Amino acid sequence: MGRLGVAYEEVAQAAQEAQGKGKSPTVDNVRLIIGSGSKSTIARHLRDWRNQQGIARGSDGAIPSELLGLVKGLWERLRDTVEQKAYDYQCEADAKVKQMQQQLAQSQQQYTVLHEQHHQLEEKSHQQTKMINELQNTLIFEQQEKAKITERALSQESHRQEQQNEIERLHQLLKHVQHNIEHYQAATQQLRQEQSLAVEKQRNEYEQRISQLQQNIASITAEKSSYQAQYEQTHQTFEKLQSSHAVLSQIAQESQMKYHSLSQEHTRLTQQHQDQSHNYESKKQSVIELQIKLGAYEDKITLLEKTLAKADDKIQILRDDCNFVSQEKANLEGQIKQLQKNLETT
Fold first, then answer.
1. Residues 122, 207: one domain?
2. C-alpha distances in Å from residue 320, one per residue of 72, 145, 252, 306, 325
3. pTM (2 decimals)?
4. Cα 63 to Cα 59: distance, rounded to the nearest angstrom
5. Based on the domain organization, do 104 and 173 belong to the same domain?
6. Out of 22-36, 73-87, 164-178, which region has the weakest mean confidence (pLDDT)?
7. Cα-Cα-Cα-Cα dihedral of 317, 319, 323, 329, to 10°?
8. SS3 assignment, position 291
9. Computed from CA positions of residues 130, 134, 139, 141, in that sequence, does the dihedral angle turn out positive or negative?
């Protein structure tokens, strides 16, 4: 059962609220908004309100309440639409930035892998160059030994004193070889010290290289022992030169064959070094191309950052527009309240 004494102001406010929601200000709709009240009382106040609305429509400069309700509804829909568009644009920009960051991380990872491969190729080329130099030194030494053996074979036919001089010369040669070995050991030790001071960040790699150098020193020491054994064997051979000239000739032929084999090995290693150099240049060109691609990716990222900054500017402009519309709404509501007061006083 409805309560008695519903005020006119409650009925007028409920009627305006119904119009704002797009509904007709009937007795049932107004009573539903108020929640209680006599229908006859509401109908009387609603009739008076409609009469005043008719007078307000006829007055100059007045704003109809129906129009105010429509403006409020339009403002709410416009604000929701603007906020939704701003949120969608922000999500799209964040997704693009995240995608470009992933592409940049992948490019940097590829560049790191190629840089490591380039470093490994340089190390391998350096080792092969060192091996070729050692083989060249061995070839030169064999050539010198061949010349010495030939000279000894010719001198044996002339005089015993020349043979003794040859023996002394071999002593000097052995001393020279020992001096070269000591110099090589000193140079190797100095190189190890310089490498240990220069690149401590790659200590593990240098330890491997030091181990390899130690193996080379052991090999050279073994060669030294072999050379000493050869010297002793040569000394014994000198004592039997008169009866072993044919043997020396055979040794000379074997040395010639060994020289020919070493020459072929040197040619093969030279060709292998050229192939490795060509492969190194190809890898180096690939690294340069990847660096160019990385620069292009960085330019794309810069462009995306600029685009994101523009998007932020647009979002800020939309926010400013929203604030401006909010201020306009507040001004309109103030004018509406002022007009309502003027209508009440009239």
1. yes
2. 20, 95, 100, 21, 9
3. 0.25
4. 9
5. yes
6. 73-87
7. 100
8. helix
9. positive
